[in-house]
């Protein structure tokens, strides 16, 4: 019982941390005193949720905030290889869906997995990165939280975005326009296409940096994670201050699928067949337009985060 009460107290204390720099919180977001009150009211819920083995549900200490089609599922599965990580199975959409957020932190807590006191609870919802209200809301819950952001080449991410929606329609036997019909309007690149906006990383990153210092956000190179996952996961372990438990032997290349799969305690598992699908064939001239469109936004992003990526 003592560890449980200590965890509840730590939760309240965590929510009272002072942000490292001023944060502008809009009028419709709850302030720190209100969140502290809500955290205190969670103590009874935490007590009610204790399992016989001493495990309990905890608010996440780490969130994978995005980006959509950046490799978030692969990152979560790889991170779950670590014995000190407890991951929520589904995308929770607490901070970006009003019908969830309005139910409060108690509801959010109920979506988390049971974990031991020493384990790190992680959830991932890729839509968080591009949702304007989310940074303030996450900061209000825990200004000291560690955030993971996995990014891919913006042009490739756009194609993956389209491919996912295309196959969703195919499975439902519904027609879906070609990617050219989305990317081109009146002979020009259609900058109103939502998939393009999601790849303007610098705009979304600026919003997160209003509330969190860069040291709280670790950017995973999604393209490198696909080609050689182990070095990228090592960096994540260090960022999360986890002991180095994941090894190169936990990964093996599946020639049939064309990407790396996981080996955990003698059990092999790969990502769902919906992952790694072939992109549609796109006219090279249209691809060049995409690359040109993202050239300047990419430079702005590199300057913002102080590092570069091997993107077109």
UniProtKB/TrEMBL annotation:
Single GO term (MF): [heparan sulfate]-glucosamine 3-sulfotransferase activity
Domain of life: Eukaryota
Active site: 69
Signal peptide bounds: 1-27
Disulphide-bridged cysteine pairs: 261-270
GO BP terms in the entry: glycosaminoglycan biosynthetic process
Pfam families: Sulfotransfer_1
Keyword Transferase: yes
GO cellular component: Golgi lumen
E.C. number: 2.8.2.-
Keywords (A to Z) from UniProt: Disulfide bond, Glycoprotein, Golgi apparatus, Signal, Transferase
Residues given in the record as 3'-phosphoadenylyl sulfate binding sites: 69-73, 152, 160, 260, 275-279
Domain Sulfotransferase: 60-299
Family that this chain belongs to: Belongs to the sulfotransferase 1 family.
Functional summary from the UniProt entry: Sulfotransferase that utilizes 3'-phospho-5'-adenylyl sulfate (PAPS) to catalyze the transfer of a sulfo group to position 3 of glucosamine residues in heparan. Catalyzes the rate limiting step in the biosynthesis of heparan sulfate (HSact). This modification is a crucial step in the biosynthesis of anticoagulant heparan sulfate as it completes the structure of the antithrombin pentasaccharide binding site.
Name of the molecule in the record: Sulfotransferase
């Amino acid at each position: 019982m003592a560890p449980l009460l200590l965890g509840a107290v730590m939760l309240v204390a965590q929510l009272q941390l002072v942000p490292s720099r001023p944060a502008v919180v809009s009028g419709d977001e709850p302030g720190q005193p209100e969140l502290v009150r809500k955290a205190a009211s969670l103590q009874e819920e935490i007590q009610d949720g204790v399992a016989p083995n001493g495990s309990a549900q905890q608010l996440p200490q780490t969130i994978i905030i995005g980006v959509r089609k950046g490799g978030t599922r692969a990152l979560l599965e790889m991170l779950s290889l670590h014995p000190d990580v407890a991951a929520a199975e589904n995308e929770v959409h607490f901070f970006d869906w009003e019908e969830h957020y309005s139910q409060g932190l108690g509801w959010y807590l109920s979506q988390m997995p049971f974990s031991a006191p020493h384990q790190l609870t992680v959830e991932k919802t890729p839509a968080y990165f591009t949702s304007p209200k989310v940074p303030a809301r996450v900061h209000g819950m825990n200004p000291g939280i560690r955030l993971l952001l996995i990014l891919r080449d913006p042009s490739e991410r756009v194609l993956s975005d389209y491919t996912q929606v295309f196959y969703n329609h195919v499975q439902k036997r519904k027609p879906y326009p070609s990617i050219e019909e989305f990317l081109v309007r009146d002979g020009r690149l259609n900058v109103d296409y939502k998939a393009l906006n999601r790849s303007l990383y610098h705009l979304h990153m600026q919003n997160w940096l209003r509330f969190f210092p860069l040291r709280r956000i670790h950017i995973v190179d999604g393209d490198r994670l696909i080609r050689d996952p182990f070095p990228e996961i090592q960096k994540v372990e260090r960022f999360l201050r986890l002991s180095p438990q994941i090894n190169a032997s936990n990964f093996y290349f599946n020639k049939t699928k064309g990407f790396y799969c996981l080996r955990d305690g003698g059990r092999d598992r790969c990502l769902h067949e919906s992952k790694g699908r072939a992109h549609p064939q796109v006219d090279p001239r249209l691809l060049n337009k995409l690359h040109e469109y993202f050239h300047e936004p990419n430079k702005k992003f590199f300057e913002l985060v102080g590092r570069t990526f091997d993107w077109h």
